[in-house]
Amino acid sequence: MPEGQYGNFIDNLRLFTRGGSGGMGYPRLGGEGGKGGDVWVVAHKKMTLKQLKDKYPQKRFVAGEGANSRVNALKGSKGKDCEIPVPVGISVTDENGKIIGELNKEKDRILVAEGGLGGKFFTNFLPLKGQKRIIHLDLKLIADVGLVGFPNAGKSSLLSQISHAKPAIADYAFTTLKPELGKIMYKDFKQILVADLPGLIEGAHVNKGMGHKFLKHIERTTQLLFVVDVSGFQLSSRTQYRTAFETIILLTKELELYNEELQAKPALLAVNKMDLPDAQNKFHQLMNQLQNPKDFLHLFEKNMIPERIMEFEHIIPISAITGEGIDELKNCIRKSLNQENDAYHKKQLLNLQISNTSHREPLFQNALASSRMDTI
């Protein structure tokens, strides 16, 4: 796996680790050598993978050797452990891609390379070497809400509106260079962490563009917030124009092709740029399409239709420029998180069972739960 670096942001590293060798035994007196030190990966809140790489450019981590058995210390002491400091949110895999473990909170620790045994009777008093292991550190953001959308949907502007964050913003098809984090602050001091994930493009699942690099970050968010431009989306003059409804279908397909379990996450939909001319008519058209998705799926090529259409708990028309709908969106995010936090794992299992039994059956029972159509 190549190391992922975008500017100053690194999201994965490959490291060499080796446990310490054991110490020599003392055959004449039956003395046992000390065990070699172990290599641990330990989570620290104020650590980044870039800091780790800068501090240890060789990316080699070797634990200390166990002490030899001596006349005045027949049982040799254990070798010094080696600790690799990593950020919270790290997934550790071996060279074959097998997951060794995850570090989801500060001070979580994983043993990655064990020290060798010291020399003793059954080893003929000869020490054993420590375990050698190549490991991959893969950073996945942990956030309450992940913003999902194609470039220029207005996600960066929205993040600025709802949270304390100052992401880079541009008025052209602009893909965020790295995930931006913001906090929604409520009057009663409740805080919700929001991650703006870089804009996907069609074909992200086959590793086109940077979208695929960051699709993995969506896995660690509790809830998804789709952000679409009410007027639709066109990446450039050479690419096809997509309506807001088509955008939602294609975003859903990208998530499904990357990892279909993502569709089991609770999702909200923010329909952005309601300040633009004719936005109201386009929003009503979108709501009709979401209410009756089967009637419009013939517009798509068969391989572009997801197995399950996303089920949105709330659909909120907003304008990140004027602030329209922002307060309602913040309230809906909080309400949805409160409802989902306890029931999330149960619902995930249930949704996966439903998806297995109802192939290609769009699920939109609750799509209009808080659509505000009655107020538009």
TrEMBL record:
One of its GO terms (cellular component) is nucleolus. InterPro entries: G_OBG, GTP-bd, GTP-bd_Obg/CgtA, GTP1_OBG_dom, GTP1_OBG_dom_sf, OBG_GTPase, P-loop_NTPase. It comes from the Eukaryota. Residues 7-142 form the Obg domain. Its main location: nucleus. One of its GO terms (biological process) is ribosome biogenesis. Keywords: GTP-binding, Nucleotide-binding, Nucleus, Ribosome biogenesis. Residues 143-338 form the OBG-type G domain. GO terms for molecular function: GTP binding; GTPase activity; magnesium ion binding. It is found in: Nucleus, Nucleolus. It holds the Pfam family MMR_HSR1. CDD domains: Obg. Belongs to the TRAFAC class OBG-HflX-like GTPase superfamily. OBG GTPase family. This is GTP-binding protein 10. It comes from Molossus molossus.
